[in-house]
């Protein structure tokens, strides 16, 4: 579908969206249960850097207050980890509030400014939105979203990085803090980038991986953006696990970004266009379920109904139908039930709850149950397991100091656990935790749940 054909489908009913946000704001009774659960409140102890404080700011903006630079900074400092939603006794839909606040901040004007501002990435939109963001901050965000949602561009962008890593020039760039002064986001990206791994066998993913044994389901698999570029072996392991459990796995080659990074960063119109394209792709695949191995992607895809609820009615219905078929890998495998035999994986492992799996999707029991069924795998719990590691989509690029502070806490928890392996279900978390451990000279391995299950099913040595 062309961009021109999609555009009318994703126009927003601004008044309806604001009514939804106001209703969510009014649900907050200001009890403060969210404060100790909030990572940024833990870091700074500032009311405005807590969910309750940000809800108060959103309420003021809805009542006509101007969007100031200070208010925008408090919204930008939020990780969007949704730990507050797990802690909230009133069921406040904080995700709707912070996504709206980020849209206002991205547009540079509060909700009282009128109709939704043009998407910065859309044709004919202003080159840069107005204040309150600095010119450098706006340029950094535009650069990130011109690259990360597009795997081909991301691969091209990291090619010079791979040369720098192989020649150790990356170490020179990271010394002295010069790069950090020029671009904190670039310095953070250099620190987070994984070292070149073992290459995959030549060739692309097949479009279909046949079930082993009796077919129990036909599923589509999302390959993702960051996942497909930095962790293609996770996708390969996911397909093998699904096939071993009796699933025909369809992997559409023309699938694009799901829109998660854009949605969680206040670029709703951009996210809606990406979502509409992905909906069309998987509708053509005609599958029982769409299995996702990235927590942030799965969370966003389950929200397509809400993202597109003010769009063309036909598109809204299609979004709802697709959202209903989205399953996280662990969630799907738990529903399906195991049939493939498990072989021992003798390792002491810690499971890290990715925020958009544990808090946003409320999936915590299923991955642990799958891992505990593996013979000789000793699963240990991390202290304060529900606290964000600091990755949070592109947060660790845009708010590197806060992200590093939270990453350090998570690394401390991993080291205290005595685990030799950290298991996660999100590529950003894996990058964040690996980088923090590496900065301390630690060689603790990291792996995705799919890779551990794959090693157990195949009776192979786990090679994270």
Structural key phrases:
five-stranded mixed beta sheet; Rossmann fold; 4 domains; 464 residues; disordered N terminus; four-stranded parallel beta sheet; single chain; Fumarate Reductase Iron-sulfur Protein, Chain B, domain 2; 26 helices; 52% helix; alpha/beta
Low-confidence stretches: 1-12, 114-130
Q: Give the strand order, joined by hyphens, for the main sheet.
A: 1-3-2-4-5
- CATH fold name of the largest domain: Rossmann fold
Classify the helix fraction into a percent range: 40-55%
Q: If you compute it from the alpha carbons, what radius of gyration comes out, rounded to the nearest whole angstrom?
A: 21 Å
- Give the C-level CATH assignment of the largest domain: Alpha Beta
Strand content: 5-15%
Number of domains: 4
Sheet with most strands: 5 strands, mixed
Shape: globular
End-to-end CA span: 38 Å
How many DSSP helices? 26
Number of strands: 9
Assembly level: single chain
Mean pLDDT: 86
State the CATH architecture of the largest domain.
Answer: 3-Layer(aba) Sandwich
Which secondary-structure class do the elements indicate? Answer: alpha/beta
Q: In words, what does this structure look like?
A:
This protein is of the alpha/beta class and 464 residues long. The chain has four domains: 3-113, Alpha-helical ferredoxin (Fumarate Reductase Iron-sulfur Protein, Chain B, domain 2, Orthogonal Bundle); 135-192, no CATH class; 208-334, Rossmann fold (3-Layer(aba) Sandwich), CATH 3.40.50; 342-458, Rossmann fold, CATH 3.40.50.1860. The chain is built from 26 helices and nine strands. A five-stranded mixed sheet has the order 1-3-2-4-5. Strands 7-6-8-9 form a four-stranded parallel sheet, with helices on both faces. Helix 2 (14-26) crosses helix 7 (94-107), helix 4 packs across helix 7 (94-107) and helix 24 packs across helix 25. It is globular.
